[in-house]
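dumping this here so i dont lose it
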């Protein structure tokens, strides 16, 4: 069985409903979900705040490319429209493949521009790292170290005060 960590985000429409729709679309492979966090937009400040979460999924014989295809299908179902002029712009649903592990538990490392693994900017994003810690508190990001150490880097630590845990929201339908 391969495993993947997916990061979920939504800031258009029914944000929580979009995240729940993604989780429902992963029900056959879902292992665990993180809590929900409200975060300011990253990279393009002229947009509404996001709801973010992370999920761990597992599937028999599923490749990294398969996980990416599944992520794109979830985005398509949620009505995601990509605007090349705003790569960090608003979206109904964003599903990023952050990490993939082989059946032997080894991290998949890839420099393919279509799917770079681990995600090339995960170590800089509090909205990815904090939910990930909910489900894998002892995780390491290859070439970057322990998630707990990454949370203390200046780039991530600067974003943490604006990240709000939303214990009042659940990814359960």
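and the seq i came up w/
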């Amino acid at each position: 069985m391969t495993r993947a960590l997916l990061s979920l985000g939504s800031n258009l429409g029914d944000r929580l409903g979009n995240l729940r729709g993604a989780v429902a679309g992963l029900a056959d492979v879902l292992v665990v979900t993180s809590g929900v966090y409200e975060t300011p937009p990253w990279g393009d400040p002229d947009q509404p705040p996001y709801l973010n979460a992370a999920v761990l999924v597992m599937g028999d014989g599923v490749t990294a490319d398969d996980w990416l295809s599944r992520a794109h299908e979830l985005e398509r179902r949620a009505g995601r429209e990509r605007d090349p002029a705003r790569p960090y712009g608003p979206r109904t649903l964003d599903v990023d493949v952050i990490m993939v592990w082989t059946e032997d538990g080894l991290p998949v490392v890839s420099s393919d521009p279509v799917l770079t693994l681990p995600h090339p900017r995960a170590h800089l994003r509090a909205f990815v790292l904090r939910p990930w810690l909910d489900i894998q508190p002892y995780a390491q990001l290859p070439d970057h170290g322990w998630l707990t150490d990454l949370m203390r880097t200046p780039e991530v630590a600067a974003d943490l005060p604006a990240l709000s845990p939303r214990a009042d929201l659940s990814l359960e339908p």
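The first strand starts at residue 2 and ends at 10.
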